[in-house]
Design a protein that fits this description.
Order of helices and strands of chain A: HEHHHEHHHHHHHHHHHHHHH
Strand order of the largest sheet of chain A: 1-2
Largest sheet of chain A: 2 strands, parallel
Oligomer: homotrimer
Chain lengths: 484, 484, 484
């Protein structure tokens, strides 16, 4: 048995280690803990301390849950079916997406938890699960760049390496730089895309484009299931973690950006084709670029026309990327991008980061009112200043920040983008070097984009049978034909 | 290049015009505007005035959002996949549905906004997006009547013309006549269906029924994805715009009507067939008629048995329509209805209007209590009357109406239905005359119900290979072979 | 016409009887009744009494609705598409699932209502609809065991018989024994599975395994739509009926159990195969076993590590069941289980019941705080005791229970499981005996797993044509043909 088929045993070992870690570290957060509703007299010290972290509202999860489920559907149905466009790789697309996501969610809860330990414990509630789903998206984007060219073992390794790097990068960006990125366009989309492209570069092979890389009529329709659920629930992805009117604005901005992006992508896809025909590849992917491009500024005051403009630019950029850039990357830069994640997540993610920087530079009390300091926490006056106390009259819960200027915030936004690019590319290269190590046997050419390598595909065989048998009754000549 | 292939350029022009209009007119409503939470001292006059239109609740969108997403899924996944039943038109069904919907949503926000300008501005929030989705349904229903027989250019024109007419008709019905129609059965379903049938009449062609009009085993299953999501989320469509217990009742009524309609449709579909076999066409469409038929009265006191009865009638009516009426319309009245929208949206819509009239005629304080005047605003006592003040003790927010009687309300309901029929039919005819103009070249017979006309279909080509070989049996040897 | 094709007429009769029963018994509950918002002076005695059953909150449905819709999707899209894995039975899988569910929902509302009459009336609101959906799941699980081997007439009879038995069994378990089962793992999954297996035993036939029982490449991907929506929305199934932090915990536990189960199922599926290949049957089904296994304890204090462990065990157990037990049952015990419901619902359901018993035995104020008595109502102190009054200081709404011990509760949990097994098996056997009666003609061998028996399937014929011709190029004549 080939080493490349040891993924089953590897998975069992990982799962058991996770169980151990869960036993030691993971507990319910107060909001999900029966003992906190109400807190009994015999409550432990930690429980009493944790009570301060509790919302005190037993229904606190109810408001987030519908948006959480939308994001959940995006991860498993959205990404899963989007990748079924390959005609002979449907099982792997939706199946490995399922398997890897289940691994991501567990690993993300643990890694995120280790970086945010409270009293040596990882406290889990619905927000933890939502965060885990966002993290999974990063790995699935990376998966898209190497789709059909990696073994399950390799995908498991990618997941184990990428998630810690993702978490560290996000902490640098959000906590240390105070960068805002409501829709995770930088921390999830840009990171996942360039990690994947760097990985693909390292795994480059001359034979990476085979006949099997194409789609079939059926597989293209299956892929539309993924596209539509991603497109429809994207507002939940961009606004799910926002609060109050920020969330409302995040929904409106994402919706507006997406409808403009969708219509523009159709238009450009047709214009650019010699016979003015639509290309399913663009419809399946470029229609979504608007969701990525508006992500960083999703909750900011960009006004509907701003969101519309972002959608138009993203849709155009993405289609042009598929037509001109993807072939160039593959032929010249030896970067083969199966799903074209650079056009759907990469470039739109960079665009989102730049837009975030521009909008942050223009943000002031004039256009945000006092809530400016809730949206850009780093701009809030430092703790103990008179200015902060004054603001607290209007916003009681406002916490002290570092009182930085709009320009400083804008610079931090760009820094976060640059660092994200750096960490993801270096991470992807290092991961690629590991995956190239001897044991992780690579696939043969005819095993690329092919389910039969790792899946029981009776149907295929049946069909072969069918054809053979059906052909026989026709006439003797046919038998001769086959016997030749 | 044929004029009929200029849709790409047309789309770009429209998108840019929309961008201009968004820049000038569209802004966040107070509920979605950061400056309103809280409103700063330096607020402008308009902002201060708009504050009165603000709910003051930063989470106002949270209650509507889940139902909005259900409706959103109905528009793109529901309608999109329902139309994939054609074996060679799947890309166009789900793809053009996607493109046209994205156009509808933008155009609907603008047109609805122009008819409801505040201080010369279109204020957008989640309700605007929900309203836009309802409007899109109208155009997609029309799309269903001419599915496979129109070019993208023609569909764009239909959208641009139909939405303003739809909006005017709804304003006449709701504002001037005070007609109620919670599920939009008259304003969306009836309007969309008869607009489409009139359009189909004008575009009639002898060759409109080709071999390609059929379905395949796979395409029929794809279509069930559309059917099920429409069927499941229909309660959100009928009750999404309702408030409090009206919404609760709207959910119950729609659910009950749909389960009875579904079961009845299966029964009639089997009974009517000579071998008692189920017909997928009925299962995909007639099971939904109950949602349309209960729409106008969805929030009214029809009791569960009333909803059940409506479902039974609608399911029967719809199946009979497919079996007897659709062929008759095509052969005798030269109205070819690809999806049979007359059976799913047309007749059930008229039925809904009539039911709405009957129920309105029977509505009284006896069976509605004081909330009668919230549900039928036109029946509320006029402003300044003692009767109104008295009611306000119980219902503080009740606004003055025109104090009309149950009979008057019932008459207005029927008037709204008749006017809807009139506007939609005339609108469809005029639109049809425009689409018949020279430039908008019509499709050749073999281009009907065929993706390859406007889509890059690599897979198809593969099949062509197959087809080539398939053509072989034409030669004698094959015939001999088979004749053995 | 065969008696087995009379299902259409049977359905009409049932539908009309249901209409009659709805007219007599079913009315809106106060929460959905316009007259209760606000209650008018001329309210009837019953209405005034019912007002006490009213929440008084006109938006009471809003919190449950999103979870209700998730469950609704599980029933129709989840179960419906999960069963489309059979290559020639797709129409029946998704179609009959649709028909039978619509029947279940009506029958469930009536039967549950008859056992909970208030003032001789069945009061319906959103909770009734949610309960009906849970009940439908039971019948659909049973359907899975006999998939492809029953006629529509037989399925209708099964539904009519199973739902009353299901309701009685649940009342015994919940009301008389005070057993808790938040995710209905015992009352829905275990009951439905063993009812189905008993039924399958009675309907056993030697020819029950035919070539048509297999899947095709396309049908396996369609089935994944069902799997994913079941897997994603399962937290709504297990927690939809819970309140406050119990619901929050139910979401977390189910999510954690499912991600562990999914990853484990993939691992075991690969390990167990000689070539280490994944088997779609396991991916489609065993990944869901964690949702069943954690169901009974979903809202209990099992901690995330407990949920994770349950998922690991369930995933392993389920895959092993498919590989070793299902063939054994079919060959040795003459129990042919088409979908392997024993591995997805049966054994995991029993596991859930045992876990529920163990967790109940360990439940105390120490780990639940006072809310122990809300979660295990039977353990609450009896009415009128000082202990109860004392608890009411913290929990005003707490109702008096029977003050049983943890051990007693644990025993009742096991009793409920045993009784469920007994009722379902006996019920399945009796139903099987009825289905074997002469009139309900059984299917011929070639009618098994075959849509054409009860569906209009034009497409199939087309394909046959294709196959015939495809064989031709095998012989020389064909080559000549092409060279001509």
């Amino acid at each position: 048995m080939k080493f490349s088929h040891l993924h089953g045993y590897l998975a069992v070992i990982i799962q058991l280690i996770f169980f151990g870690l869960f036993c030691i570290f993971v507990r319910y957060s107060p909001d999900a803990d029966a003992r906190h509703h109400p807190l009994p007299e015999n409550a432990t010290k930690v429980e009493t301390k944790m009570a301060h972290h509790s919302s005190g509202d037993p229904w606190i999860h109810a408001r987030t849950y519908p948006m959480f489920q939308d994001v959940h559907v995006m991860i498993f149905v959205g990404f899963g079916f989007l990748m079924t466009f390959l005609k002979k790789y449907g099982f792997s697309a939706v199946g490995l997406n399922f398997m890897i996501s289940a691994l991501c969610l567990q690993w993300a809860i643990l890694i995120h938890g280790f970086f945010h330990l409270k009293y040596g414990t990882i406290f889990v509630d619905l927000n933890s699960l939502l965060g885990a789903d966002f993290t999974a998206a990063t790995v699935l984007i990376t998966f898209g760049a190497v789709l059909g060219k990696t073994t399950p073992t390799q995908l498991i390794l990618v997941t184990m390496i990428e998630i810690p790097l993702f978490t560290i990068n996000e902490i640098i960006g959000r906590q240390y730089l105070g960068a805002v990125d409501m829709g995770d366009s930088m921390f999830v989309h840009t990171f996942g895309a360039y990690f994947g492209l760097a990985l693909s570069l390292m795994l480059y092979r001359r034979d990476s484009s085979t006949e099997k890389e194409g789609s079939s009529y059926q597989s293209d329709i299956f892929a539309m299931i993924g596209t539509l659920f991603l497109w429809l629930y994207w507002p939940s992805f961009n606004a799910g973690a926002a609060v109050g009117d920020d969330q409302h604005r995040g929904i409106v901005n994402t919706y507006v950006s997406l409808i403009a992006c969708c219509f523009t992508a159709f238009a450009i896809s047709s214009i650019i084709h010699k016979d003015k025909k639509f290309d399913m590849v663009h419809i399946q992917n470029s229609t979504l670029a608007g969701g990525v491009a508006v992500g960083t500024a999703a909750d900011l005051m960009i006004q509907p026309w701003g969101a519309l403009l972002i959608g138009i630019i993203a849709g155009t950029l993405s289609v042009l990327g598929y037509v001109y850039l993807t072939p160039f990357l593959a032929s010249r830069l030896r970067i083969h991008d199966t799903c074209g994640v650079n056009n759907l997540h990469g470039m739109p993610g960079i665009l989102a980061g730049i837009i975030g920087c521009i909008v942050a530079a223009m943000a002031s009390e004039a256009n945000y009112g006092p809530s400016l300091y809730e949206i850009f926490p780093a701009r809030a006056p430092p703790h103990g200043t008179a200015q902060l106390d004054q603001l607290r009259v209007l916003l009681p819960d406002l916490e002290g920040g570092s009182g930085i200027s709009a320009t400083a915030q804008a610079i931090n936004q760009i820094l976060a983008l640059v660092i994200t690019m750096g960490v993801s590319i270096v991470g992807g290269i290092v991961t690629g070097l590991i995956l190239r190590l001897r044991p992780f046997a690579t696939l043969k050419t005819d095993e690329l984009y092919e389910d039969e390598t790792y899946w029981l595909v009776e149907a295929e065989e049946d069909e072969h049978e069918a054809h053979k048998t059906i052909s026989i009754p026709m006439n003797d000549a046919a038998d001769n034909g086959t016997s030749k």
